[in-house]
Amino acid sequence: MPPPAALSASSSFTLLSPSPSPSPKLASFHSKHHSFHSATRFTRLRRARSLAPRCAVIEKETPETEKPDTFLRESSSPTSVRARFEKMIREAQDTVCEAIAAADGGGKFKEDVWSRPGGGGGISRVLQNGAVWEKAGVNVSVVYGVMPPEAYRAAKGAPTDHKPGPVPFFAAGISSVLHPKNPFAPTLHFNYRYFETDAPQDAPGAPRQWWFGGGTDLTPAYIFEEDVKHFHSVQKSACDKFDPTFYPRFKKWCDDYFYIKHRDERRGLGGIFFDDLNDYDQEMLLSFATECANSVVPAYVPIIEKRKDTPFTEDHKAWQQLRRGRYVEFNLVYDRGTTFGLKTGGRIESILVSLPLTARWEYDHKPEEGSEEWKLLDACINPKEWV
């Protein structure tokens, strides 16, 4: 939730143990003796596997009681892009969580710190059933190791022409979804990530490369134009500091990405989204991702402060729940981050933290034309230019 915490709001990177590929002899042995008595086959396979190199296996996370200063290896340079990106996302997590807790007025985040045996880890924070927030999750992860080719294809979002084989990788990101209780207060998703594949050109796996991805998007149940314009203005301002083509390009990318094909509508009212971005200077893109992450609070919290106490009816709440259903549909069917996390055995609580506590589906529901609900649906079907 795209989500590394990662690929997208819903995502949680995983780590695979960096062990060699399976022995081809083992595969041949298994095929040749398939018809043997099961006990004999088990004994021989066990003996063969004890002699063969171990294949890449998924390592489950280990709960930790304290946050480390860094999830990187001790040998990592503090001036590397990896180290500076980790510093940025951890600072952004602190800043956003402080703002969200302050807006709630009493809710507290539950924090889980976890690590991977092979290296890396993450911090998951969730505020649930607060005064303002139904569910607010802000996760960071910094993981590295080896992933199978199908996970690499999920991370890239398209077929690749690299040789089959395990892919050494590094992935770091911050991922968040904020679901308010009040139906007049919009949901927000943001996610910023940095990804590397480490394999040299002549090794099985992906060629060495890096890319940035991410975005921030707004999903209201009701449209307040001043709120949507404010939100998009902040996104445009962050983009314009680096390239005037970024906002129109990434705004369209956002509209296209968060498209629910089976409904022929967008999840919400957009924002910015980009992925696989590596055709600019690496330092520039690091600064751009930092600026975008720093823009989350000023783009969103003023809207929450304005709408969190607005009176509403049961009908308003029911419409919000129907739109939350669309949110669930997109995240479970189309979101690249969710796909990546599920394919690689990631931390399931982090992967699904983007889902709301409650949602609703009604058979063949159609809002009355001209109603406020209809206006929202129309804007999701026909994206608008807000600034």
UniProtKB/TrEMBL annotation:
<dbReference type="GO" id="GO:0015995">
    <property type="term" value="P:chlorophyll biosynthetic process"/>
</dbReference>
<keyword id="KW-0560">Oxidoreductase</keyword>
<dbReference type="GO" id="GO:0006782">
    <property type="term" value="P:protoporphyrinogen IX biosynthetic process"/>
</dbReference>
<keyword id="KW-0150">Chloroplast</keyword>
<dbReference type="GO" id="GO:0004109">
    <property type="term" value="F:coproporphyrinogen oxidase activity"/>
</dbReference>
<dbReference type="GO" id="GO:0009570">
    <property type="term" value="C:chloroplast stroma"/>
</dbReference>
<dbReference type="InterPro" id="IPR001260">
    <property type="entry name" value="Coprogen_oxidase_aer"/>
</dbReference>
<keyword id="KW-0627">Porphyrin biosynthesis</keyword>
<keyword id="KW-0809">Transit peptide</keyword>
<keyword id="KW-0934">Plastid</keyword>
<keyword id="KW-0350">Heme biosynthesis</keyword>
<feature type="compositionally biased region" description="Low complexity">
    <location>
        <begin position="1"/>
        <end position="29"/>
    </location>
</feature>
<dbReference type="Pfam" id="PF01218">
    <property type="entry name" value="Coprogen_oxidas"/>
</dbReference>
<comment type="subunit">
    <text>Homodimer.</text>
</comment>
<dbReference type="InterPro" id="IPR018375">
    <property type="entry name" value="Coprogen_oxidase_CS"/>
</dbReference>
<protein>
    <recommendedName>
        <fullName>coproporphyrinogen oxidase</fullName>
        <ecNumber>1.3.3.3</ecNumber>
    </recommendedName>
</protein>
<keyword id="KW-0149">Chlorophyll biosynthesis</keyword>
<comment type="pathway">
    <text>Porphyrin-containing compound metabolism; protoporphyrin-IX biosynthesis; protoporphyrinogen-IX from coproporphyrinogen-III (O2 route): step 1/1.</text>
</comment>
<comment type="similarity">
    <text>Belongs to the aerobic coproporphyrinogen-III oxidase family.</text>
</comment>
<dbReference type="InterPro" id="IPR036406">
    <property type="entry name" value="Coprogen_oxidase_aer_sf"/>
</dbReference>
<feature type="region of interest" description="Disordered">
    <location>
        <begin position="1"/>
        <end position="32"/>
    </location>
</feature>
